[in-house]
Amino acid sequence: MFRNFKVVPHIIFGRGSFNQLDDILAEKRRGVGSFMVFLVDDVFSESGLKTKMPVKKQDLLIWVNVDDEPKTVYVDELTDRVRAYMKSGSNNLPAGIIGIGGGSTMDLAKAVSLMLTNPGSSADYQGWDLIKNPAVYHVGIPTLSGTGAEVSRTTVLSGPEKKLGINSDYTVFDQIVLDPELISGAPADQRFYTGMDCYIHCVESLNGTYLNTFSKAYGEKAIELCREVFLGNGPDSDDKLMIASYFGGMSIAYSQVGVCHALSYGLSFVLGLHHGIGNCIAFDYLEEYYPEGVHEFRRMMKKHGINFPRNLAKGIENHRLEKMVDVALVLEPLWENALGTGWKEIMTREKIKELYQRM
Amino acid sequence: MFRNFKVVPHIIFGRGSFNQLDDILAEKRRGVGSFMVFLVDDVFSESGLKTKMPVKKQDLLIWVNVDDEPKTVYVDELTDRVRAYMKSGSNNLPAGIIGIGGGSTMDLAKAVSLMLTNPGSSADYQGWDLIKNPAVYHVGIPTLSGTGAEVSRTTVLSGPEKKLGINSDYTVFDQIVLDPELISGAPADQRFYTGMDCYIHCVESLNGTYLNTFSKAYGEKAIELCREVFLGNGPDSDDKLMIASYFGGMSIAYSQVGVCHALSYGLSFVLGLHHGIGNCIAFDYLEEYYPEGVHEFRRMMKKHGINFPRNLAKGIENHRLEKMVDVALVLEPLWENALGTGWKEIMTREKIKELYQRM
């Protein structure tokens, strides 16, 4: 069985394309009482971007905080805010949810668009294909590139029990706006960590057992663009990083991430690390699995003067270490992609603990 | 203004994925009177593929003939056949149109799906964004790779006056099934000519003035795959050719074809040549515009023992030559992409005639 891959059906790419958002949304606005919800990373609350956003007086603008990675309780809270706003007005669902920010913000926008049409808590839907009803129309506008959240069929959330995405065809954005100008202002370290998310997941997918020609073509081009961005000095590196992220996300169609992402999920859940930096911390200790990738990654780190914290999991209390292992082991497809069907014999709890204790 | 690019929203890729077509269509069939229309290249009427097609007893199977390139009168005739079938049954529109074949067959399927919901003749819609109503759900299943018809927003038709596509977001397939096994039986020369459509349009777009990073990434990877297919000897060359075609089609988002395609349209319209061979004939005389591409193309021809007819337009009657020039000159975006905004000074009627007379 091959996956019938759901692709974002409308893509606009180009420097300044953000200025066309108003026109794009105009087609979706429907008469009286129709409103849009903008979920925007609060780092932009004092920025020039704020003045360019086509927020009309009937719209709801919510500044979201992503100092912590998205949690299911936060998604539920944001959904309740939108519902309260509906009650104060037309009682209609919003005409669209527009997420402007990095992977965390885009994931919040995806999750809220799903939870407006599906009952209960977002924690009920962490898993694969548990969503029953189509989402509200939703638009993703990245201001950081590398996660692939702009094209993926998941929204990764930390719930009460686990860090796991809401994986569904309905999660996929209806529209993305890829404007390289929006990522040009990102802090250098954040740009690096997020960009490495793309680089690392391509290393994992290209070295995985699930790969086919579709995913290989996307993954190879994405990694080539990452090299140009992080080892070269091109003037159009923002454009390239944005396309690398898009291609990296597309490559996941018939592939999977691997050892690094699985371990990174455990680090994030227990230590509260952001996904990008969590990946980098884990990847640096995975020479055994991805020798060439890890060496090239270190050259990229050096060139960009990146130093990340060390010894974070060393000497950690045993129950927290066990929880990290639990979180990592939930991600069976990742382990199977990386190590084949016999992965359970290779990647024992002891082996995972040993890896974590080096980090 | 950047194009808000409409992408085929559902893609399935893999050897044997054609076997999942029945499941994919099952979701679209709607109770009593609901039927599918299969438009299938008549070369398959005696083939093993016929037995694998999920045609139900209520469905309409039409074997289409593409010895000639698709004409608007043929589209209108096929649309009338579907309408007559509707009248004999439920009077409902079909639940879907499934095109199985090369670029011509896929273009027929696209055009019929549009004409079932838009009044008049298909000739009325040759041009850009003239279609007013969404098409019937339509699925493209290529059995030849290279045209990019599986992803494009056009269906190229020869009308009473001109060869020109129906360009519209509604033209884009709702689903494509990319099964490399389906292209493995194509005759070697046809496979070559169709594959060269991809190679040539990538040369044209990568050397054009419209290009941006999105289209460049797709075009570069497509051309790399074409090289592996036509200059290498890989075991998975069907898989690669199928992805090259898909990537080549995607690269057109923010690029255009150029001199070769413009001239090829004239050759097809007046001499009735198929698009693939028309491109090859024209390209071989375009060293002046695409020196590296033409040299590599000749190496590919040599490796595959391809000899195409020569002197087809030599000594042609003047009124036919003039018509060829007219058809080529309609395609203004192609010329502008190839030669810049001042193209009219470079590419005069005399210059085009001179090129045609060599072919």
Q: Nutshell version of this structure?
A:
2 copies of one chain form a homodimer. Chain A has 359 residues and is an alpha/beta fold.
Give the key terms.
globular, three-stranded mixed β-sheet, homodimer, 14 helices, 359 residues, 12% strand, alpha/beta, six-stranded parallel β-sheet, 46% helix
Specify the structural class of chain A.
alpha/beta
- Describe the oligomeric state of these chains in a short phrase: homodimer
Label the overall shape of chain A: globular
Element pattern of chain A in H and E: EEHEHEHEHEEEEEHHHHHHHHHH
The residue-averaged pLDDT of chain A reads: 95
- Looking across the biggest beta sheet of chain A, what order are the strands in? 2-10-7-5-3-4
Distance between the termini of chain A: 38 Å
| Beta-strand percent range of chain A | 5-15%
Poorly predicted regions of chain A are none
Largest sheet of chain A: 6 strands, parallel
Largest contact between chains: A-B, 37 and 37 residues
What is the number of beta strands of chain A?
10
What's the helical proportion of residues of chain A? 40-55%
Given the structure, what is the number of helices of chain A? 14
- Supply Rg of chain A: 20 Å
